[in-house]
C-alpha cells in the first residue's frame, strides 16, 4: 500500500470513526434525555390506560366490515354519548371521558374501520364518507333514544359526513354535537408551524412519501413495533402543548396506540383527510347544541379551523384550551369533560 493510499484510508477511517462517534453520542444524549424525563414524578403512573372495558359488541356493516363496539354506563340513562376517535387512534383514546362520564351516562365507543380491533378494509373504502355511513349504522344498531355525538379529529369529520348524508337525524335523534380538534376542510393547507415556503414544499412531497411508506408497510411496521426513544420525544413535543409536564405514562400510551395502527392504514386514510371538505354540511349542526374545543397550540388541526367551524355555527360554543395541543381530551380531560357535561345539560333542557 502506497503512502498516498494509506493516507486516504486513514482519512476515510477517521471520517467513519467520527461519524460513528457522533451517532453514538447522539444516541447517548437521547437516552439520557428520555431517562431524565422518566425519572420525574408521574401523577399518571398508575392510570389504567387501555384497560377500561365495556360490554363488547360487533357490528357487521353493509359492506361486510366487522366494527368493534363497546357500550358502557347505565342502559336506562336518558342520553347516550357516542364517541368517534381520531386518525391512528382507537376507542381507548377516550379513556378519561369513559372513566369520568360512564357513571351517569350511557356511552357507546367504537373503533373506526381499520383502526383498533375493527376489521381492516380496502384502500378504496378508506374514506370519510364511508366512516359517516359506519356511524349511521352504529346509531341504527346501538342507539334507540336521544344521543350526543362527540368526535376528535377524524372522528369530527365522521360526524360531518353523517350530517351531509343524513341531515334528518340532527334535531330528531341526535340532540347535540361535540367537535374536538377537528376541521371542516383545507387540511392540505396547514403549515405545521413551518415557514410558508417549507410548508408548501412539505405538502408537495408528503402524499408521495406516505404512499411509498404504505407500499412498504409491513417492513416499516417491523421497525415501528420495536418502539424507540425518538418516537417518545417527538410525540411528547408535538402531541402535547405542555410537553415539560405531560405524564411519560400518557405519552407511552398514545405512542403505543399510534404504533398499533398499520402503516398501510395510515397511508390509505391520508388522502381522505387531505381532501376532506364538509363546510357546506355544517349548517345541519346549527339545529342542535354544539360544543367546539381545540388546543391553543394544536399544530395538526390549528385553532383557525375550529374558528371557521364556529363562524359557520353562530350558536355553537367555542373553547380554546390554553397550553394544549391536538390531544386535548387526554391532556386536559377535566376541561373537555366539563364542556361535555354542560353540552348534555343543554340537550336535557
From TrEMBL:
The entry's keywords: Hydrolase
Record bears the keyword Cell inner membrane: no
InterPro entries named among the record's database cross-references: AB_hydrolase_1, AB_hydrolase_fold, Carboxylesterase_BioH, Epox_hydrolase-like
Gene3D superfamilies named among the record's database cross-references: alpha/beta hydrolase (3.40.50.1820)
SUPFAM superfamilies on file: alpha/beta-Hydrolases (SSF53474)
Pfam families documented for this protein: Abhydrolase_1
GO molecular function, one term: hydrolase activity
Residues of the AB hydrolase-1 domain: 80-333
PANTHER family, per the entry: HYDROLASE ALPHA/BETA FOLD FAMILY, PEROXISOMAL MEMBRANE PROTEIN LPX1
Annotated protein name in UniProt: Alpha/beta fold hydrolase
Source organism: Nonomuraea mangrovi
Amino acid at each position: 500500500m502506497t503512502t498516498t493510499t494509506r493516507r486516504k484510508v486513514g482519512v476515510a477511517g477517521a471520517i467513519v470513526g467520527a461519524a460513528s462517534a457522533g451517532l453514538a453520542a447522539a444516541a447517548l444524549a437521547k437516552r439520557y434525555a428520555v431517562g431524565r424525563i422518566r425519572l420525574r414524578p408521574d401523577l399518571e403512573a398508575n392510570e389504567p390506560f387501555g384497560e377500561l372495558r365495556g360490554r363488547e359488541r360487533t357490528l357487521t356493516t353493509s359492506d361486510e366490515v366487522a366494527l368493534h363496539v363497546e357500550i358502557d354506563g347505565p342502559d336506562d340513562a336518558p342520553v347516550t354519548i357516542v364517541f368517534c376517535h381520531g386518525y391512528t387512534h382507537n376507542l381507548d383514546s377516550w379513556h378519561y371521558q369513559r372513566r369520568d362520564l360512564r357513571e351517569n351516562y350511557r356511552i357507546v365507543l367504537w373503533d373506526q374501520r381499520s383502526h383498533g380491533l375493527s376489521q381492516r378494509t380496502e384502500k378504496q373504502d378508506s374514506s370519510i364518507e364511508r366512516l359517516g355511513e359506519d356511524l349511521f349504522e352504529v346509531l341504527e344498531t346501538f342507539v334507540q333514544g336521544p344521543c350526543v355525538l362527540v368526535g376528535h379529529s377524524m372522528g369530527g369529520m365522521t360526524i360531518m359526513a353523517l350530517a351531509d348524508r343524513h341531515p334528518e337525524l340532527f334535531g330528531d335523534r341526535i340532540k347535540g354535537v361535540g367537535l374536538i380538534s377537528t376541521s371542516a376542510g383545507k387540511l392540505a393547507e396547514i403549515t405545521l408551524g413551518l415557514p410558508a415556503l417549507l410548508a408548501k414544499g412539505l405538502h408537495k412531497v408528503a402524499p408521495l412519501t406516505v404512499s411509498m411508506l404504505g407500499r412498504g408497510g409491513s417492513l416499516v411496521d417491523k421497525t415501528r413495533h420495536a418502539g424507540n426513544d425518538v418516537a417518545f420525544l417527538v410525540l411528547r413535543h408535538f402531541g402535547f402543548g405542555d410537553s415539560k409536564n405531560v405524564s411519560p405514562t400518557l405519552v407511552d400510551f398514545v405512542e403505543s396506540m399510534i404504533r398499533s395502527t398499520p402503516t398501510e392504514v395510515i397511508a390509505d386514510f391520508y388522502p381522505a383527510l387531505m381532501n376532506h371538505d364538509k363546510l357546506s354540511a355544517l349548517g345541519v349542526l346549527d339545529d342542535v347544541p354544539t360544543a367546539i374545543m381545540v388546543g391553543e397550540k394544536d399544530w395538526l388541526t390549528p385553532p383557525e379551523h375550529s374558528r371557521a367551524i364556529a363562524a359557520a355555527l353562530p350558536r355553537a360554543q367555542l373553547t380554546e384550551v390554553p397550553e394544549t395541543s391536538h390531544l386535548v381530551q387526554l391532556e386536559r380531560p377535566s376541561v373537555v369533560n366539563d364542556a361535555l357535561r354542560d353540552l348534555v345539560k343543554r340537550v336535557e333542557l
